[in-house]
Fold this protein.
Amino acid sequence: METLTLQDLQFFLPEVILITFAFVVLFISNKNKSSLLPFHLAMGALLGALIFTITQLGSEAILNFGTVEINTFSLLLKIVFIIFSIITVWGSKDFAISISFGKEYYGLILFATVGLTMLGSAGDLITLFIAFELTSISTYALPLIDRSNERGREAALKYFLNGAFATGLVLFGLSLVYGLTGTVLLKEIVPIIAEIGYEPMIVVALAFLVAGFGYKMAIVPFHLWAPDVYEGSPTPVTSFLAGVTKKGAFVVSLKILLATLIVIKIQVSILLGTLAILTMTVGNVVALMQKNTKRMLAYSSIAHAGNILVGLAIITELSVAGSILHIIAHGLMTIGIFFGILYVSKIRGGYDLGDFIGLRWVAPWTAFGLLIILLSLAGVPPFIGFWGKMVIVVSAFELGNWYMFLALALVLNSALSLVYYARVIRVMYMDNKGVEFNMATKQNTVIETREITAATKEIGKLRTSSYNIALYVCVLLITVTGLFPEQLVAISREAARFIIPW
Amino acid sequence: MSLLHWVIFTPFLFAFIVPFIYKYIRPIHTGWFVLPIPAALFILVAKHIPQVATQGQLRETIAWIPSLGINFAINLDGLSLIFGLLILGIGALVVLYSIYYLSKEKEALHNFYVYLLLFMGAMLGVVFSENIIALYMFWELTSIASFLLIAYWYQRKGSRYGAQKALLITFFGGLCMLAGFLFLGKITGTYLISEIILQVGQVKGHPGFLPAMVLILLGAFTKSAQFPFHIWLPDAMEAPTPISAYLHSATMVKAGIYIIARFTPVFGGGQQWFWLVSGVGLITLFWGSFSAVRQVDLKSMLAYSTISQLGMIVCLLGLGSVALYYGPGEGGAFYITAILAAVFHLINHSTFKGCLFMVVGIIDHETGTRDIRRLGGLMSLMPITFTLAVIGSFSMAGLPPFNGFLSKEMFFTGILKAAQMDIFNMQTWGILFPIIGWLASIFTFVYCMLLVFKSFTGKYYPEKLEKTPHEAPWGMLLPPLVLASLVVLFFFFPNVLANYLLQPALVAILPGLVGLSSEIEIIAPWHGWTPELIMTLGVIGIGIGLFLTFRSWSKLYTYLPQRFTLNILYDQLLIKTEDISRKMTKGYMSGFIRDYLLYIFSFLVVTVGGALLFLDSFVYDPTGNSTINSYEIVLAIIMLGAALMVLFAQDRVVAIIGLGTMGYVVAMFFVVFRAPDLALTQLVVETVTTVMFLLCFYFLPRLEKEKVSSSFQAIRVVISMGVGVVVTALALSAQGNRLFEPISWFFENSYELAGANNIVNAILVDFRGFDTMLEILVFCIAGLGVYTLIKLGLTRRKQDESK
């Protein structure tokens, strides 16, 4: 452990770039609302950060008295989060122009990204917590970024209240961990806890940590805010919250839970496993009935949180790799599908299931992209959503015992989830006239073939919308990584090796 | 990338080109461009026949996901060769047929051919993959392609229903199969089929043997429409007829059979496998043929007939697995013949059923209906179609001189032998095999006759038909003609087939028992006056009798329960899950944060309380505590009173005052413990918050009495009590746990280390100076925030004024 040298500063370059540009974006002139300057600045910052991070790939370092660790895990997550932010920013180009707080939107996303990039590399509890909070606080305002959206207020308030409550729980848990070990460095906590051995207070700490992070990860029974917030927020924000920042909570849980709870592995497994099964089942069962696609996806993303949690509950190198893989996969799918939905709501006026009727003829490529993402969400090969689940299930089978039930629950839930994903596919691809989802209150549920052709002409202009670009980028990544998952699987396994403390 | 990999990938790659061909070359039917693909690949694969017949198998591997031990390995042996040839051969015929069946003006041909090619590639992948994970991937792809193809005529409600049903059932089965594969992978440590087979001994002794077997069979049964999962196949008949002929009779539904055959060497030889496979096959055989008789839609009839024929093949595979029980030698020789019959019938079924589907397609195309109540007398109008129908259905009924006769005879031999088995509890139950098998054959005969004679003979009703029927174009007749001639050819030269295709397949299914050069039984139509022949004669006799008296006994079917069918079970299952889902949503997604908090608090009570209770974490150590004096008791009582006041207050102001009282009492505690600065701070904070509360509440609506049920109220009481108890216990045991030195060290050394008399100052600026600085920073940021808010308010007021 040495003091920081000038050479080590290069590892902070991505964060420095992001912070600098975040301020620049915030301070540029507010006069021209339709200016693309904030967009270009944000994209430039993210791309720059991405390039610098990629060049660091493969290096390993422990900086600043162990508070920052650079290794494959941290670099992989940095890259992933920056790419997620790039897609989000790219996709929200049209959105940011339409709202009055456009540059603030980019600024907040950049700040949140800094927090996320720090999550992976944080080496002690305090840095980790601060990075986590930076992400959370930056995003509290996002649901309300579009002031014309009335529902955003409820969403923002709920998100903030729940987030604050969760932070309190996390802090309580962390202080207990510190109280037990006397150190905040993750690397030191592991041997100390191993030395102390089984200490009952640590179970209490675990309960608080799981509850606190459970909030942020939106796992059952802490998930209740998620559907309301996701539905109420503007869709690009939903995409960022569900696809990007929520994944940050998983990263923190991975690091803290794995590092601190080594001595009570079995209790952790049982607790997380139970929560995982609950989360998957509740998420999927409730999603079955949702007619509002945004809300349906909120529940689906709860169910996916359960999938990721299964990997955490198993606690082997492979299962953690599976969790990392599924975090990446679900992030891509979520961002993509929310932007797809946004596009649909722009051309059809809403995001109820009825608005998707006959989408295949109105916007064939969007429908195709959504089809692929929906299949991937259901865990159908050969898309990346399949491999995440697959690796987790394989790891469960390697261990055997009751972990098999976890795997079985995951598999059965995948089958269950197909029911509602297939319904959207059916509506998009097969329903021509609104016969079955005849919700009398909505006008555009009954769509005749003639109207579609008339509408198609108007929509031609919208087709190059940035929303679609984000969707296509995600679909491309999902398919390519699904067909050739080797690189991603290998790097996830290597990353997992760094955070498994034994 | 070997040639065989390209065989799999070519259809996928071409699927990408099809939409462009469709878009830019409209005058020519897209099918003509697609046709060369399966035809060329067929020749390419067929070239391997001699090689496989002499060498047994061909293996090729490319790396795919080495970090998970998954490589894209390909294995071409006798079994996969037969399937590959069926997929490509019938694929080519179906494409040719579809060119005339689907109009190029009206239909979305690009979708059709894209899905078809996707299916073809996926199906080839299933049968050629040596790696079970890759196999699973292709397996699900076939489900998706089938889903898209069933729903090709999406305008029909039935086709959407059927597509969804097929997808849900086969996807569920596929996932089960994946779980089974992973079991196998765990037991053997490899995902390669050939390596798994080498470790059979290890698999058999393992506790995971049974679950793996059942799960894999679930996958196979759902895909091959075995009882009770057969319900999706009749609904899948909404697909265009070429698709029904291709996917739902010749290839995809046989994927399950492929899996059963492929894993026979792994699981076969035991009692469970035998009973599961042959039992389910037998039930399916009977139920399918029994249900087929009552159908009035020709395609539904064929669907049930497919179910029944698949059941027969499965049953034969189950019987044949007994060969593995006996091992090499005399005892098992007979059962090898059952496997031979299974593979032989698999080919035969594809030929005659493919032919029949195309015939039905022609009838549908020419008359506009498939309802046998409206059809009749088509014989003179469509003589060639009639001949084809006769060949196909007589073969299916098991009559000579068609290939169905040969395999049916072999099936009879099999079930007769089964009756004499003296292992696996067959002594008592074995007699059921010939009885049920024979009954099923009679029903098979009856529906075959219904199929031909109801539609082609009898009276012709032109007024019931939408179109005027005439003979189909040659392009539509050619594919069934090819298949029909194969039906006849296989009857006369079965042993050519046996030598080049069946024997290598046997080697693949029963490795170690059958060699490439070993003798297998010669398939022959005439064995003398055997029991099998008598059974066939019985089938024909009784069958003709039943056919002639069909009108009088078909009413029996109306007595069958209509309410408790499997279809209704499936529908109810979906409806019930939605019901549960709706109830759950209504039950707890109220949208109120106060309700959500209940769940959170109960979780904390359960986990933290549970940890304290069950893990002996509760420690109460009163040794360091000072004695309790009378002031403190009085203060505690006041505090309790204030807390109760908050609880039962009807008005917000009262509640706030109660809360404030509690705060002031805390300040009093500080006074009692001689900490005036803390007491002062507490008083100030308490005053400010109370005042702010009161100011804020002025703007809020009146507190209304909530209407909550008493049970909900009780839950709240229990949970709040629980939280209280748990937090108290936690506080007490946190006091009791002391792992480190107390921080009183700072107090004792403050003078020497910091030169300060005031301990608080020394801590703030010396010992924890860095923290203080950060705290100041936090205040700065908060101040900035306040400033921004004020400024925002001012500018907005200005804007309002200027408006």
Q: What stands out?
A: Chain B has 35 helices and two strands. Residues 155 and 238 of chain B are 11 Å apart (CA to CA). Chain B has a mean pLDDT of 82. The two ends of chain B are 74 Å apart (CA to CA).
